[in-house]
Write a structure and sequence with these properties.
The strands form seven sheets. The protein has a seven-stranded mixed beta sheet with strand order 1-2-16-3-12-6-7, sandwiched between helices. Strands 22-21-20-19-23 form a five-stranded mixed beta sheet. 45% of the residues lie in helices and 11% in strands. The protein is globular. The two termini are 57 Å apart. 35% of the residues are buried. Helix 5 (128-143) packs across helix 8 (230-250), helix 9 (254-270) runs antiparallel to helix 10 (290-300) and helix 13 (388-419) packs across helix 14. It has 1055 residues and is of the alpha+beta class. It has 33 helices and 23 strands. One of its GO terms (molecular function) is actin binding. Residues 4-680 form the Myosin motor domain. Residues 706-733 form a coiled coil. Residues 835-926 form the SH2 domain. Residues 1000-1014 have a biased composition (Basic and acidic residues).
Length: 1055
Amino acid sequence: MEGLFHEDLAALSDLDEQSLLESLSQRFKQDRIYTYIGDILVAINPFKYLPLYVKEVSERYKYHEKSKLPPHIFAVADRAYQSMMGRLATGPRNQCIVISGESGAGKTESTKLLLRQIMELCRANSQLEQQILQVNPLLEAFGNAQTVMNDNSSRFGKYIQLRFHNSSVKGAKINEYLLEKSRVVHQDEGERNFHIFYCMLAGISPEDKDMYGLLDPTQYRYLNGRYGSEDIVRKWGEKYSEVCNAMDMVGFQEQEKVDMMTILAGILSLGNIMFEPTETDVLRVTGKSMGWLKATAGQFGVQEEELLRSLTCTLSVTRGEAIRRLHNQQQAEDARDSIAKVAYGRVFGWIVSKVNELLAPNVDFDVELNEIGILDIFGFENFAVNRFEQLCINLANEQLQYFFNHHIFLMEQNEYKEEGIEWETISFKDNKPILDLILTKPIGILSLLDEQSAFPQASDRDFVDKLNSKFKSSPHYEVVRSHSPLFTVVHYAGKVQYNGGGFLEMNRDTIPASIRDLFINSVTPLLSVLFAGLNVSADDNFNSTRKQSVGAQFKHSLAVLMEKMFVANPHFVRCIKPNGNKLPDQVDNKRVMDQLRYNGLLETIRIRRDGFSWRPSFKEFAQRCVCVLLHLIKCNLCGLWVFFSCLSILNTTAIHGWKCGSSRLFFKYWHQEELSRLLERLGKAALVIQKNYLSLRYRRKYLSLLLEVSRQRQAQREREEELEEENKMLYQQYCVCVSGPVSPPVPLPRRKKPQPRPRSIMPTAAHLAPVPRPRNKQFEATPFDNLEVHSELAELMGQGEERARERSKKRRDNIRWFRETQARKVVRNGAFPCWFHGMITRRQAEDLMTDKPVGCFLIRVGQSREGYTLTYKGANRCRHYMIEMQSNGKYVILGEDKAHPSLPDLVQHHSRVGIKPFNELLTTSCGQTCDHNTDYEDLKGLDHLAVVDCRSTVSGEEEGELSPDQVHLEFQQLFLPPGQNPALEAQRPPVLRRISDRRHRAEAEGGPERDRKSRPFPRLYPSIRLAMREIQQIQQSPAVSHSTPKPSWRRTGRS
């Protein structure tokens, strides 16, 4: 069993299906879930936790050599990043990582691991990396659901584009494809709705449930009356906290979050509206559903009567005359479900648009950005009942398989022919005919579907009959004899039988114009925006002049995606599902072999073993590797010079097994890494040469400057001695003239050597520690300190004064920012927390920490930016962590993945959870050195922010009493609450002053209660509460009390 433990299957000498299967199975049983096929990674889902992704492993795979470490998903991320940077043998180029496999094979988890490792590779002093990482859990909650094949199945496709400038990430964009909206209103047996509904019901607090209008989850028809065990509910509650934190980290506003959750609650309430006919054949809402109708209207922010009218009738205008058509019960239920589907689809699309807006690159348009794309798309599916969504999903997988075949087999073997390379053709299963069957115009399946969708009277049976007549002779289509509209497509992964019922309606995806007008006039701003067409894509049916079907939209999206991927350098990850029971340590050999066959892995191994995966042109290779031959650097790389340069370079190296074509060189997949190592060695050697050359050059320059300084000093001493002799002679002559007593000359005072300026000027105070000596030798006296000040030095001094003025202005601006936007958030109970120290310098903060224990900390206002800095006393030194304010007002420590509503909440959280990367806990706060007043002038007056007007309520206290400290007075007047003036306050009536005093005291002492009252609410919150009470009263009546059991999981609600 030679290939049993091979990490690279392309090295197998005995290549057949059985040896391939046994090699993968044995590696899987030893928890070696990753295996190479040349430069392609095969990943088998272990269905359990493995310690393969900890920090230490991540660090080992940074800038590593492939042959020295076992196969890993981190190695793919590193290879893509290094290729994008041009550090491998190829030049800089856009990259794409294609993750494929059937549903449940582990594609979503692989995507998250790739993103995490790429963010580790490009880590910079920015919060953008953490924001990008938070996008996945957010989209996962709204776009993933449990199916019979996968507990966390992606019900949409996404292509993540990471934009880089130099080595740091500058932005990201998410492209989403075909959300399965029908899941909102219907789920098959053993499946669930989207995760967000269960997370929301499990995670929010009882107060928030009352605010949004949510009841027991078993009462909602769209959830099939099922929920879960207490353990599952607890996990959903934790997931909801992650989703809320992800929205905070990315930058969603609090009101936007409330509106979004209210719309989701409205979708659940909408599903419980039931209809019944009356004696006049006019539909009405059942008595038990009236409360749900009122709740839905309040949650959507619309009028109850208008919502009912939109559900029970259709209004059309013909020749200026309004015609109202009443719905039957089935049409009313279809309209209800259509509203739920389109509302959820628009919320999801808005989330993606909002993420793209917040993560857009903040660079100039003329800056060229490199890109790494990661494709995570729904896997191949074959359920008991397959509908329109499954056809689109399997079409996407057909496109990905064609892209893989084209890149690995077709394009490579065509180049062998064109370049005259001897090659024995490797046959592969080409799925191009299947794509033609579905996509070809005008007789493809999707084209015929669009044709039938254009006829209002057409039925799903008519559509299937037309398919049968057109494709009955195709080897990739099978006719199904059945009363139901069924047909079968032979995909590359096997036969799939589709139920044509609902194809036409799903492809049309229409919604009455009355419903659009209803939601445009909603008082919920988010819902109004979603249906006004301001923040939704132009391919919506009623927002564009030309209606486009869902199938046509999806086909166009796939074409755009393929265009992006064909111009990038691809990296492939093939995910394998070991068994259908989602159990660890079990391998179903038949299932694994089926996946190996339809993925074409046996043929892939053969072409990777015998073929040449890297095929650069002569010019590309010579430009990249010309540094190997120094005498060719100045040569003109054109014509024969390029060809001979390539041969000279390759003859210089120890690389064997390459071939030369007519215009290209052909290398094995491992040659690229060997050349990369060679170029890396040459680069390091060049750095050593540069270092020594520059060291010698500047040492000579320094010695010449020292010589010049010595010469100037000698000349200065000689001039001083000549002047002294001349003065002495003049004095002697003067004494002879006046015949007076001769006294020795008075020596001239020696010039004082200038002292270096310290880095900061500490205020003179008895309680402050002495300033330590400068730690850097750049502040010590140098031989150049005594040189004369030339014009250039004067100019530099002028620039220094200008910078000082700018720093002073920035400081004043930051004080104003803190005064106007932050002071009220920091003050608690009329005073600042003891850990808050205002605007002090880094040196002052470190001096305060001199004699403090490990774990002591303080927070100070930034001097050069709008934000804060947390200074922490570590075991060996003080560390300074930047605290950034998100665009939504949340606080986060740079590099952390948790956002906080206030600084006290941040401090409380990190007193329990350590700050990365050293896991440092905040244990002791560094208090002020004075017990009564703050240490620094910038804080004076701010702690009286909320109680500054209360002096009128204190008996015996005179108005206008002034503090002797003028700075204190000035700051006290500057930091008054907006709209108040001390001069006008005295003129107000006593009653109004007492009301104002009580309000300000409540604001200062309210704490969390004040924050709770100021939080946003749904616009029609009173209507929602009244509707919920009506529903509960109906449910508590004797007629229905037996059908609504009390849930046992309510205690798991989370805030």
